[in-house]
């Protein structure tokens, strides 16, 4: 019996534009009886093995209508009746939106009993690839598919899933190269030209974008007056970061009883692909922060962005945007101010009213969410980096 094992060494999350490596091992396993003695085994000859990357896109048929000029879906490919050719997307849901050229791992491989051989598959993930995304209307998923065929047998497929993150502006990494005139120069050291990898450049770009701190202050008001002043220290974040901001009620003219801040993403299907033009964007809530703030001068929020979330992106089919959704519960009438004790040694007791006439005020603040270091995202990934299949 032949056992095929495909393994992604190191991690299961990659950036678009990176090279991905997969180790594929073929083993002729010797079976043993219950008493431990080996059974009679034979040599096997494998005709060929190939590997290929493909991205599958599946959509909600009630919300999304794909254009007429598109590729065949995987279900249509499966009915073609060809069992010996290498069709990586065979049996998959949806349609293939991206696929690399198939790479041949070997031809005519003979494995004697107990023998094992390992082959390395390397491929470049296209820089214009869409990110891995599991939305309500659209889903993008990536797999490395390894196809193998024994003589006079149908082709067997083995798939290894992985996740793709996209950093905008990495199609040409040479624009991020540092000018030689600006580099520190040591006259006693021989200079060596070193090309930066896509991962190194991407991490530098993300660090530059998300570390720019510039406090943005927003006055939250309605027709009756001022509710609060909100301060956000930056507007660009990486997945895994914490969104920290402060709420100042010292200059408020409308009493705020409590407020909540929720991190939300908005999945927007392009107008050309909507089945119903009146369909509203789909909102996905994440972590939130609740605070009771009556008679409070200042408060703050701290909301984490999950590492499993998808950074903002846009394709010809769907786009994803991020924002903070605030809900302020405000009183319709002015409340008596809290009485302060005359001296610090004295204390005061305040009894809240049994009834408050309140209303809810909603406010949305757009933010930018970018990718992060793939190693961090791998630490919380549930994708298997090793898959085994028997021929």
Automatic annotation (TrEMBL):
Pfam families: Rgp1. InterPro entries: Rgp1. It comes from the Eukaryota. This is RAB6A-GEF complex partner protein 2.
